[in-house]
Amino acid sequence: MQKNRFDLVVAEIKAQAMNPPGKDIYLQSFYTHVLNNLDRDRSNQLIKIITETLTVRPKITHKHFVNLLFRSVQYLETNYLNNVNYPNGLETPEAWDKEINQLLENIEYEKHLRLTLKERNTTTTIYQRYCGPYFIMSTLTKNKVTFVDLGCGAGYGPLGISKSVPFKEIVDRTVGKKVAAQMRLPLPLNKAYGIDVTSHGDPESISWLRACQFYPSEIYQMNDILNFEKKVGFFNGKVTFFESDITNPKAIRNEFPKKKCDFATVCTTLYMIPDKKENVLKFAQGLLKPNGLVIVQDFARKTPNGKLRFDVSWTTGWPYRTFVWGKATGYKFWEVLKWSSGRCREVAPGDDFKAFLHLAS
């Protein structure tokens, strides 16, 4: 019998508690706290909120929900509780137990948590994650590039590329260190677009996007994030943003220029909507020039028939990968790169790396 959604969520929480992303001790202790409550008392208020959210969001995947659960708590900690000491003191499940109980005793905070879980989605806001798409775009074209970022979040990718912000250095395990070399070259940009359901530039949305950006132990990087935002701004003449659901973009069909883009990027988005990935690909195809390519970077694996599956570990076996899809690949996904983590600081060649280089030659 197939596991029900609650059991899938519990299994994912257990996996995150045993092997947390980034080996983050605060994430580990948070998920262990949730597990302890599940084992001890399923009438617990937090468990009730989890069950309620799964009921009102029947399409949310278990991986997306478990990620969203922590991001929602982190959002409250940093924006409503204004906890300047966060995450210090939350290294143990017992500390989280006390913290969550205090949070839920406050009617206003509990309401915010419920609303966040019901209405928001996690989103990619890490500029470094665009070095994979950058490598592909800069390798395949010598002319000025036009690209669209679907599910762009805060728009860091298009904005950073438009301002030629350099990526962090990486450990490159490809022959000749081709990825690192290509990342250092400029990408001539004609125009970039970003499409996301989040209202671009809205202060509350920006606060949410920041909460999705870092593990608790990475909060020291917040000044770097703020400096990056100051450097690129949230608006400039080379990047145009549209507010729309990329799985059903009716609102912008007549506004967005069709068949104008060389590339469409989709970073850390499809894992949340695996049942709607065909909708996204169809939409992207309508925005691309005849030989344009879709670049997908996500926690995914390629199947033998060239499709993507997302039921994979986020922490083992080069979990984060970069794929291309389009006419040149026979509308099958090619795995170009694989990364040691979603932080994109170490890269190795994917199964189709050589085929991709041949395509570029």
Summarize the structure.
The protein is an alpha/beta fold.
Describe this structure in words.
The protein has 361 residues and is of the alpha/beta class. The protein has two domains: 5-119, no CATH class; 127-360, Rossmann fold. It is built from 13 helices and eleven strands. The strands form two sheets. The protein has a nine-stranded mixed β-sheet, with helices on both faces. Strands 7-8 form a two-stranded antiparallel ribbon. Helix 1 (5-18) crosses helix 2 (25-40), helix 4 runs antiparallel to helix 6 and helix 4 packs across helix 10 (203-211). The radius of gyration is 20 Å and the shape is globular. The protein starts with a helix and ends with a helix. The model has no long low-confidence stretch (mean pLDDT 91). It comes from Candidatus Gottesmanbacteria bacterium RIFCSPHIGHO2_01_FULL_42_12. This is Methyltransferase domain-containing protein.
Question: What's the order of the H and E elements?
Answer: HHHHHHHEHEHEHHEEHEEEEEEH
Please tell me the total number of domains. 2
Q: Give the overall pLDDT as a whole number.
A: 91
Under the CATH scheme, which class of the largest domain?
A: Alpha Beta
- Gross morphology is globular
CATH architecture of the largest domain: 3-Layer(aba) Sandwich
Q: Please give the oligomerization state of what you see.
A: single chain
According to DSSP, the number of beta strands is 11
- Low-confidence parts, pLDDT < 50 over ≥5 residues? none
For the largest beta sheet, what order do the strands appear in spatially? 2-11-10-9-6-5-1-3-4
Strand content: 15-25%
CATH fold-type name of the largest domain = Rossmann fold
